[in-house]
């Protein structure tokens, strides 16, 4: 990704997003079990942020500013958490939307995808929260089976528990809008 935004602009955006995530109640403390099965003393509920129009718009604007520096032609989101994010970013960037299902439905088109995907497409995937990167890596593999490529994943929050390294191994760059260490300060 090209570096055109200054460090201070990115820091300002990060602080705006942190304030919005806290204000809409997306950051919770307690005892939680994550999708990965790990236990955590905090939970980042981006679905709460996705249902708050101001926070969702802020996420879409910040993701779109990064996407403008990428060579991509489709915005993708994995059901469920990535779909409202990718939809908002698609509206902001005017790039087509692709929804990636976690499993093939046994009715209708029986496809893992909602939207058009072609072998030469270049996609960016929007994720709500990344921990190990396992679920988004599954989506990357399914997309690549079509001949399309995924070079970037934009995550609203990276929990900093291995997703960056896991995605790097898959040839994909993780671009978090906020890291957990910044959010929990």
From TrEMBL:
It is an enzyme of class 2 (transferase). The keyword Transport does not apply. Transmembrane segments: none annotated. GO terms for molecular function: magnesium ion binding; orotate phosphoribosyltransferase activity. Pathway: Pyrimidine metabolism; UMP biosynthesis via de novo pathway; UMP from orotate: step 1/2. It catalyses: orotidine 5'-phosphate + diphosphate = orotate + 5-phospho-alpha-D-ribose 1-diphosphate. Residues 53-165 form the Phosphoribosyltransferase domain. It comes from the Archaea. Keywords: Glycosyltransferase, Magnesium, Pyrimidine biosynthesis, Transferase. Pfam families: Pribosyltran. The keyword Glycosyltransferase applies. GO terms for biological process: 'de novo' UMP biosynthetic process; pyrimidine nucleobase biosynthetic process. Orotate binds at residues 131, 159. Its cofactor is Mg(2+). Its EC number is 2.4.2.10. 5-phospho-alpha-D-ribose 1-diphosphate binds at residues 101-102, 105, 127-135. Catalyzes the transfer of a ribosyl phosphate group from 5-phosphoribose 1-diphosphate to orotate, leading to the formation of orotidine monophosphate (OMP). Homodimer. Belongs to the purine/pyrimidine phosphoribosyltransferase family. PyrE subfamily. HAMAP family: PyrE (MF_01208). This is Orotate phosphoribosyltransferase. The lineage of its organism: Archaea, Methanobacteriati, Methanobacteriota, Stenosarchaea group, Methanomicrobia.
